Each structure stands twice: as structure tokens, then as C-alpha cells.
Automatic annotation (TrEMBL):
Its EC number is 2.1.1.13. The keyword Metal-binding applies. One of its GO terms (biological process) is methylation. This is Methionine synthase. Residues 5-334 form the Cobalamin-independent methionine synthase MetE C-terminal/archaeal domain. One of its GO terms (molecular function) is methionine synthase activity. The lineage of its organism: Bacteria, Bacillati, Actinomycetota, Actinomycetes, Micrococcales. It comes from the Bacteria. It comes from Mycetocola reblochoni. The keyword Acetylation does not apply. Keywords: Metal-binding, Methyltransferase, Transferase, Zinc.
Length: 347
């Protein structure tokens, strides 16, 4: 474990082809029943091992035990009818057929605590577990019960807080909430978005992170990115609020994106997970590419608060590409570590 520049993935890794169809989001499981339960945990062990062999410092679940980063969590809640579907616009970007909230939402059982305990048993390194954020959750549903995005988000925040406390008890060191919706709904972000996120983390003693990105490297997202102009300044909306929040770590995308790196200054004092790996391309970054992206942020974040990471999840990539990208991340971080210990960053 490197104390300086500890490396971590943002989230998903590709699943093995015997578990679900590769290079696809929402890919259906190939197993069922007890075989699926066992297969998911086998995949979790493989993902942890691949991260360890690549040399990552913080081990993530790689989202091996869930089909989708938002939907799988919601499937375990009551109050949502998955057979009653309506078409809505996801993050103002693309239409999707989504389940309907038909009654009060609640969580009857822990969702990921057993999986997290399994990951905890697999490694003595720090582990990170990702959950969807409240605003991103409500954006994947049609609400026919509360008819208030704010109220539904608040209910989800309470549920996420219960889940997060169980993950913490299972030994998770960092709980991360994925809030790509923070790059889209700026009025709600200010009105209640950050407050709902803080509610989800209330009372936790482990570290807490929020991941905000421009989405997986799928067509709807790359088309949307093409409309955002020469500079992507969406983070300027959320970062000042998060800098004043109780969250410990903020994860953003950087490498190959049009995000001006100086936006990181808006987070001064927080830990920053900086995306130094492009997940929308199968080209493997060189360690020098990774180091250059990380180095470019050093004027805006203290080196002891920088966590080299990926831009987003790697589920849509092939396993071989994901593996090579993990190695590039680790080697790039090491290049910068060597520079810093030589006392001449940027030289
Ligand atoms: Zn992301």
C-alpha cells in the first residue's frame, strides 16, 4: 500500500464471459439461482485478484455482484414496481423504459453487506464499495407515489444511509456514492442534492466519496459530450458545494476530457480522485500519459490528497484492456511518486 498517491478504480470492471455477456452495460446474467450466487462471488474474487496483481492500492468491488450500478440496488427495495414501466429521459440525455415508484420506498434487507464482507475477507488492503447517489437513483425511475423528486431523493438518502452503515460494519474503508446527475441538474443540486448526499453519509466513521462524471463511454454519452463545447465547466456547479460538505473525497474525470484541470482548486482541502485513465477508448495509456495528467493537477491539489484513478467504470471494455489500463495507472502513479520523492515535480 502506497501512502502517497494510492491508486483506485472508480467502479466497475468487465465481468467474466461465463457470468454475463462482455463489453455491454445491463448485460443479463448467464447463470441463475445458486449458480449465479456462487458465480458472482467468484467474479468478485477474480476482480479483487486482478486489481491486486496490477498493483492497485485500494481494492474496489468492481461491481461484479450487480447487473447495473443503480438498478440492482433499487431492485432490492420495496415500493418500486419493475413490471410497471414508463419511458423517461435519463439525465436529460436519452429515453429509457424505467420502473415505477408505486408506494413508500423502503429497504427490507441489506443489499450488499454480505458481498462486502466477502471482499473484506479477500484482502488486507483498504476496500472501497460504490452505491448510487440519491439524485441519480430518482432519475432512473417514474414516480407515481411521492410525485416530488426531492422527497423521493430524501427517502433514498435514508435507505442509503442504512446500507452504508452495514457496509461500514462489514469492514469497508471507503463508501462511494455515484452522482453523475450532479453534472446535469444544477438547480436541484443546490436546493437539496448535496444535502441529500450528506444525509446518506450521516454518522459514518469510514471515509466517504462522491463520483461525478460524464458517464460511461456509450454512444448516448459521447454524443452528449460533443454538445458541451470546448471546455467542460459543469464541475464548477458542484465542487464549491462539495468543498463545504462533509464528504471526504471527490472523484472526477480528467484524462482525455475537456474538463479544465484548474476546477480541482475548487475542492481545496478535500481528497481528489483524479481520472487519469480514459474509459471511452480501448487505447492503453502509457505510464507517461498517466503521470502527465496527474502532474497537471498538482498545482490545485496537495499531493498527499491525490488519489490516481480512472475516469469512470470500465464495464464496457474488454477484460484484457481493463487489465492493461490498471497496470498503466499503477505505473503512471509510480512515475510521479518517484519524481516527488526526488523533489522535482515536473522536471
Ligand atoms: Zn462515472
Amino acid at each position: 500500500m502506497n501512502a502517497l498517491l494510492p491508486t483506485a478504480l472508480v467502479g466497475s470492471l468487465p465481468k467474466p464471459s461465463w457470468l454475463s455477456e462482455p463489453e455491454k452495460l445491463w448485460s443479463p446474467w448467464k447463470l441463475s439461482g445458486d449458480e449465479l450466487a456462487e458465480g458472482r462471488l467468484d467474479a468478485l474474487a477474480l476482480a479483487a485478484d486482478e486489481q491486486r496483481r496490477a498493483g492497485l492500492d485500494i481494492i474496489s468491488d468492481g461491481e461484479q455482484t450487480r447487473q447495473h450500478f443503480v438498478t440492482t440496488f433499487i431492485e432490492h427495495l420495496s415500493g418500486v414496481d419493475f413490471d410497471r414501466r414508463e419511458t423517461v429521459r435519463i439525465r436529460n440525455r436519452y429515453d429509457a423504459s424505467v420502473p415505477t415508484v408505486v408506494g413508500a420506498v423502503s429497504r427490507e434487507h441489506p443489499v450488499f453487506a454480505e458481498d462486502a464482507a466477502r471482499l473484506r475477507a479477500l484482502t488486507s488492503q483498504p476496500i472501497k464499495w460504490a452505491l448510487p447517489g440519491p439524485m441519480t437513483m430518482i432519475d432512473t425511475l417514474y414516480d407515481d407515489h411521492y410525485r416530488s423528486r426531492e422527497q423521493l431523493a430524501w427517502e433514498f438518502a435514508t435507505i442509503l444511509n442504512q446500507e452504508a452503515k452495514e457496509l461500514e460494519a462489514a469492514g469497508v474503508d471507503i463508501i462511494q456514492f455515484d452522482e453523475p446527475a450532479f453534472n446535469v441538474f444544477f438547480d436541484e443540486l443546490k436546493d437539496w442534492g448535496v444535502a441529500a448526499l450528506e444525509r446518506a453519509t450521516e454518522g459514518l466513521r469510514c471515509e466517504t466519496a462522491v463520483h461525478i462524471c460524464y458517464g460511461y463511454g456509450i454512444k448516448a454519452n459521447t454524443d452528449w459530450k460533443a454538445t458541451l463545447g470546448a471546455e467542460w465547466r459543469q464541475y464548477e456547479e458542484s465542487f464549491p458545494l462539495l468543498q463545504r460538505s462533509t464528504l471526504d473525497i471527490v472523484s472526477l474525470e480528467s484524462h482525455n476530457s475537456r474538463v479544465p484541470v484548474e476546477v480541482v482548486e475548487l475542492l481545496r482541502g478535500k481528497k481528489v480522485m483524479l481520472g487519469a485513465i480514459d474509459v471511452a477508448s480501448s487505447d492503453i495509456e502509457s505510464p507517461e500519459d498517466v503521470a502527465a495528467t496527474l502532474r497537471s493537477a498538482l498545482p490545485y491539489v496537495d499531493a498527499d490528497k491525490l488519489i490516481p484513478s480512472t475516469n469512470c467504470g470500465m464495464a464496457p471494455l474488454s477484460r484484457a484492456v481493463a487489465r492493461d489500463k490498471m497496470v498503466a495507472l499503477v505505473q503512471g502513479a509510480q512515475l510521479l511518486r518517484d519524481e516527488l520523492s526526488a523533489g522535482s515535480p515536473g522536471a
